[in-house]
Design a protein that fits this description.
Blueprint (H helix, E strand, L loop, with lengths): L14 H32 L5 H4 L8
Length: 63
């Protein structure tokens, strides 16, 4: 029988930490997009119609 190695090579020591950071950043980005998509319609309804940010219309001069 062979014994299992006692230590991993240095390139594998932070593998799960990096995976956790990537998963958490993906989770936070998706939660941010969800919150924005839920909140933006109510922000648009509560603001005036002149606001170009919430209405989605540009304020460029039309000729």
């Amino acid at each position: 029988m062979s014994s299992a190695p006692t230590s991993l090579p240095s390139r594998y020591t932070h593998r799960y930490g990096i995976l956790a950071i990537c998963c958490m950043s993906l989770f936070i980005a998706s939660m941010d997009a969800t919150v924005v998509n839920v909140a933006l319609p109510s922000i648009g309804r509560s603001s005036t119609r002149r606001s170009p940010v919430c209405s989605g219309r540009s304020t460029a001069t039309r000729s």
